[in-house]
Automatic annotation (TrEMBL):
Gene3D superfamilies: TolB, C-terminal domain. This is SMP-30/gluconolactonase/LRE family protein. It holds the Pfam family SGL. Belongs to the SMP-30/CGR1 family. Residues 15-258 form the SMP-30/Gluconolactonase/LRE-like region domain. Transmembrane segments: none annotated. InterPro entries: 6-blade_b-propeller_TolB-like, SGL, SMP-30. It comes from the Bacteria.
Length: 292
């Protein structure tokens, strides 16, 4: 079954990513990585505001007391939305200036999981880190190329992860107390004709919703069987990520990109880089808040 009813939010991102529902503000956030733009869409008013940072801005997460945690280049920072004060927290891979953060999520106990890649997309150059209260990043996975989508199951025992070029969703045992993961199996293999799996979220039935770069949509997969269940068809080729939000957590905010499109393709797909809202029947979960 294909879903195609959507509302578009013009943002014309070069590389839209990092969607987040902030329940306290009742708004969606997302980023344009290369341009350093942070977007906030206020659900009650339909108004979008933009802030800019002189960095590559890869990740936006919810922090304590309504603040945001931002992934800027290779550093994490706390951002106060009222004062617009930026407080630097920690850095990874200081000796690798071509590297930057990519996707990031908060786990069920409030630690931040955030991955890196080389801006040359060097195979195996990236890693996945866990950052807890002590602000000392601990590598969880290495030899990654484009560290991307993450999700945890409701029982907090399983972690899903995507390294985009592999076209695999890998499933790991997740230990809630230690934060350690151990590879269990491949949950989903994405066929070449469906594009590359990118950002990901999980619904209350345990199904995975994944943005497919080059696949023109968000695909719903059953990680227990590896079966494709549904597609949200969008009028753009490069779909990058999605998250659940809205009052009932039954709205998907979907991010997209203009990068790697020719002028002719951009003319054919003029909504590339915009964000999209789609109502779904099975809601997701409230986003975890970082302990930082």
């Amino acid at each position: 079954m294909k879903l195609s009813n959507f509302t578009s939010i013009p943002s014309q991102c070069f590389l839209g990513e990092g969607p987040l529902w902030h329940s306290g503000r009742q708004s969606f956030f997302w980023v344009d990585i290369e341009r350093g733009n942070l977007f906030e869409y206020h659900s009650a008013t339909g108004v979008t505001s933009t802030r800019n940072f002189p960095h590559r801005l890869a990740v936006v997460l919810e922090g304590k007391d309504g603040s945001l945690i931002l992934g800027l280049d290779r550093r994490l920072a706390r951002f106060d939305l009222e004062t617009e004060e930026l407080e630097w927290l920690c850095e990874v891979e200081e000796d690798l200036p071509l590297h930057r953060f990519n996707d990031g999520k908060v786990d069920p106990v409030g630690s931040i999981w955030i991955g890196t890649l080389s801006t040359n997309f060097t195979e195996g150059a990236g890693s996945l880190y866990r950052v807890g209260r002590d602000l000392h990043p601990k590598a969880q996975l290495s030899n990654l190329t484009i560290s991307n989508g993450m999700a945890w199951t409701e029982d907090k025992k399983t972690f899903f992860f995507i390294d985009t070029p592999t076209r695999l969703v890998r499933e790991f045992d997740f230990d809630l107390e230690s934060g350690q993961i151990q590879f269990r199996r491949v949950a989903v293999e994405v066929p070449e004709e469906l594009g590359f799996p990118d950002g990901m979220c999980i619904d209350r039935d345990g199904m995975l919703w994944i943005g497919h770069y080059g696949g023109s949509g968000v695909f719903q997969w059953n990680p227990k069987t590896g079966q494709l269940l549904e597609k949200i068809e969008l009028p753009v080729p490069h779909v990058t990520s999605c998250c659940f939000g809205g009052e009932n957590l039954d709205i998907l905010l979907i991010t997209t990109a203009q990068e790697n499109l020719t002028p002719e393709q951009l003319e054919k797909y003029p909504q590339s880089g915009d964000a999209f809202l789609v109502k779904v029947t099975v809601p997701g979960y409230k986003t975890s808040v970082a302990i930082l």
